[in-house]
Specification:
The protein is an alpha/beta fold. The chain contains 5 helices and 9 strands; from the N terminus they run βαβββββααβαββα. A hairpin with a 2-residue loop joins strand 8 and strand 9. It is globular. It starts with 13 loop residues before the first strand and ends in a 5-residue tail after the last helix.
Length: about 150
């Protein structure tokens, strides 16, 4: 079975200049957990996932101390709402992950799942000639249970 048989499409993309506010709105509107980021030619240059909006534990430089950070800012508990308000106008290019691991439509599902496991991804963009055409998520793997076997 090929990736194209279970991927979700059409894919919702963001441009490099799209704001985090716009991205959050689109992700919520379409109930998606990731958006590929494309350049002016429509080629994938990055990806933003819902985990990019969450706090992550980061180590202080030259220290063994870890503290939460969101959007590259240290996060005091009393300022989390302020941080989210201040970053609304950051652009996709400011927080996207790049380069992007992708799959092709013709790739075997096993290969794509191996990539997802190796890199601990929940979402894998599917591209044709560098242009996103779909998204493979762990949720899409449920389709493997329901596929019609004609053997």
């Amino acid at each position: 079975m090929k990736v194209k048989d279970i991927m979700s499409y059409p894919v919702i993309v963001a441009r490099e200049e799209t704001t985090l506010r716009e991205i959050a709105g689109e992700m919520l509107k379409h109930k998606i957990g990731a958006m590929p980021v494309v350049d002016v030619e429509g080629k994938i240059v990055g990806i933003i996932t819902d985990s990019d909006f969450a706090a992550k534990e980061r180590g202080f430089p030259f220290s063994t101390f870890f503290a939460p950070q969101v959007f590259g800012r240290w996060m005091p508990k009393e300022d989390i709402e302020k941080i989210y308000e201040e970053v609304q106008n950051l652009r996709a290019k400011d927080i996207m992950t790049s380069p992007v691991i992708t799959a092709s439509e013709e790739e075997e599902i096993e290969e794509a799942v191996e990539k997802m496991l190796k890199y601990d991804f929940n979402h894998l963009p599917v591209v044709r000639d560098g242009v996103p055409v779909g998204m493979l998520s762990r949720h899409d793997l449920l389709k493997l249970i329901l596929r019609n076997k004609s053997r």
